[in-house]
Every structure is written in C-alpha cells, then in structure tokens.
Amino acid sequence: MKTRFTVGLTGGIASGKSLVADRLASLGAAVVDTDVISREQTAAGMPALAEIGRQFGAELIRGDGTLDRAGLREQVFADPAARKRLEAILHPRIRKAAWERAGRTAGSYLVMVVPLLVETGFTDGIDRVLVIDAPRKLQIGRLRERDGVTHAQALAILASQASRRQRRAMADDVILNDGTRRRLIGKVDELHALYLSQAEVLTEQ
Predict the structure, then answer these.
(1) Statement: residue 1 has pLDDT above 80
(2) I want to staple 105 with a disulfide (CB 3.0 to 4.6 A). Which of 30, 90, 144, 163 is the partner?
(3) Where are the CATH 3.40.50.300 domain residues in the chain?
(4) Which of 3, 45, 47, 10 is nearest to 121 (CA)?
(5) H or E element: which one contains 33?
C-alpha cells in the first residue's frame, strides 16, 4: 500500500525541470527521474535496446553496442506511428523500473520526474502534479543553446509534446520559469513547504 506523498513533476523540454528536481532533492525529497531510467533501459545490452533494433533497424545500434539516439529521434519525430511503437517498447519498462527505484529511495516525500506525464497518462500513484512552465520562445532559445538543434528541429520537438495549455489543465501547481534562477528557487521552496505539510497529513492517516 502506498504511504508516501508523491508529486509528479513535468513540463515541456527546456522548461527547467532538472533545476527544480535538483532543488527539491537538496531539500530532502526523494527524486526519481524517468529520463535517467529511459537512458538506462536503452543502454548497451539491455532488452529494450535489442527490441528497438528489431523494430527500427539494426543500423541504429552502433558497433560498440550503443544506441544512435540522433538517428532514432529523426525517425520518431517524423512519424507519429513510429513514436507510438517506441513508446510501447519503453514506457512499460520505464514505469516498472521507476516505481521499483522509488521504493529504494529515501526522502520526506517522493518526486517522480516524468517529462511526458501528460502525454503518457503517468498519473497512477501521483498525488499532486507540478508543472514547470516556460514561454515557447524561451524554450526554443534554451533548447537551441543546450542541444545545438536548429530552429526547425526545436519546433518539431515542441510539436511532439503536449501544449502548455494541456499541461496546465492537469496541474495542481504551476511554476512559471521566465525569470531568474533565484526567483525560480524561491517558488520551489514555497512548494516544498506545502508538500512537506501534505506528506505529514498522509503519514498520519
């Protein structure tokens, strides 16, 4: 039976999720990042990687056994059906591994970082959804600077994700990350205090 208060942390690409998750972890929350787990599931020798090779082409597996992530990204962004096939391979494995890791991770409450929470319906076991929001123009700029993608590639990535409106519709809490790091941290600290109080209530029940 679930006894720990759990926050689902989500947001569009380059919105600031990692910074928020790191801050919450530093304050004592247990943080499980499904992006990290996704990379682990597609590491050399993993069953998911072999399945990707069968479904999308053996050429996506490099000579050293690692995944050609850029090549796979090209395929799935260009083809929604291909993206669905990839999700069918990865998402069940990621969910299972994420909850297993959560059970081994200590903290005052649990933060499950799920970039595609809205798109995948990853809400079972989640008590509260926190959305990190950012203006589209800022997302594009951060994405181009961070990942070196073109403007067109950045637009394609954003188009493949839920809209800001869709995320906000599912949110219990929203942090708009359009200012300074200090301002963002201040908002995170306020929510941390709220989550601690809610975690205490759940523990007492």
Answers:
(1) no
(2) 30
(3) 1-29+107-205, 35-106
(4) 10
(5) strand 30-33
Q: Which two tokens stand for residue 109?
A: 């409450």
What lies within 8 Å, CB to CB, of 73 at 6+ separation is none
What is the CATH topology of the domain spanning 1-29+107-205? Rossmann fold (3.40.50)
CB 120 within 8 A of CB 91: yes
Which amino acid, 153? Q
- 130 and 5 in contact (C-beta within 8 Å)? no
Position 184 scores a pLDDT of: 96
Tokens of residue 119, six digits: 């798109």
More confident residue, 149 or 6: 6
Superfamily in which the 35-106 domain is placed by CATH: P-loop containing nucleotide triphosphate hydrolases (3.40.50.300)
Note the pLDDT tens digit of each residue in 93-142.
999 999 999 999 999 999 999 999 998 899 999 999 999 999 999 999 99
Residue count of the chain, please give it. Answer: 205
Q: How far apart are CA 106 and CA 98, in angstroms?
A: 14
Q: In this predicted structure, what is the pLDDT of residue 204?
A: 66
